[in-house]
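Field reference: sequence -> structure
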Amino acid sequence: MAKYQIDSIQHWEPFEHDGVSYSLSHLDVHEMTYKGTKQDYTFVVTYGLHCFAKEDTPYVISVVYKDGRENKTVCMERYEASKHLRHILENLPTLALFQTTVDKFFTLDMLNTFTRKYEPYKVCIAFYKEKRLLRMHILSAFFARTGPGAVGVKIPNKSVSLFKVAMDIAAKPRNANIPKEATNRKGMGQNVKSGIE
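Structure field:
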């Protein structure tokens, strides 16, 4: 049953592989409140398919997951890292957010359970307002090996604080700039085996 009147997946069904069930409940909808000096901001947080799925990585398994918009192969590296996202988001006010044309992102060094090395972990977020709710949709999260945020690659974008972002979003009209990637609730939460070996 839907908890909020929003167009994003609120509950992710588990997937199965080799007789093992893998929970995605850590990516279910939740609220996150950030206490500012002048005002507190509460966001309804949802997550996208790209937090745990991606084609053509060394860590894909033979499971294709559907989110209502697209089908992607489950990547176990992304899946394992996604278990840390809620804790990471709790510390968002301490991190520098970098603006791109469609979203904001940040990177931090995190232990990769597959390589057993600390690597830059990049989280891409869309901030917007939906039905008067402040919304944060995690578009994708992955270990950055190329592009801005990767080792030795400078981030050219200007940084902004979470509270500046929150203040700007709160001032916008309802249903402002909802990203198409977040509107994935129809036909969501299905997974099927694919022919990948």
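Note: Confidence is low (pLDDT under 50) at residues 192-197.
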